[in-house]
Predict the 3D structure of the following.
Amino acid sequence: MIAIIDYDAGNLKSVEKALSYLGEEVLVTRNFKDILAADKVILPGVGAFGESMGRLKQYGLDKVIREAVQSKKPFLGICLGLQLLFAGSEENGGVEGLHILDGEIVKIPAAPGLKIPHIGWNSLHLQNQGRLFDGIVEGAFVYFVHSYYLRAEKEEIVKASTEYGARIHASVEEDNIFACQFHPEKSSSVGLQILRNFARIGEV
């Protein structure tokens, strides 16, 4: 069973729908026992970093996320869910994140003709053999919606990147932790394959 953490952060239903389409058993919940009993956990999210971090703490989910990660079960952050896993964000004047992974979230730099937020399809450069990208070809397109992006501290955890005014770390993986800045649930067949790969992690 895959638990999707509910902290009032937007794209829960679309993630649930995509996984259900793939035949996965899914539960959208903020119940601590259900999250810790799940085989895998997903932290989705769209919205403001500071407000969302505040809700995680309000519901006590920051502690549950750490416990789930420490239990070594596969854990996937999506969009804002990726950003929250890192040390902090420039958004909202600077807010501390969960700091489960090392890196910072910074604003996409303004440039002539560059629209911010970045909304749309971008191609991925794949690197470092990410398990989420099994069966995905170099240059595959995925769907982004964001104004801030990840600069991971360790290059070796970066499994996919894209260019949009800067080199954006689009997906990372470290041990049992996976995260995507883009929305696999909105990325057509490529995104479904990424979610399928996550659902199969740890299966014999």
About this structure: Residues 2-200 form a domain with the Rossmann fold fold (CATH 3.40.50.880).
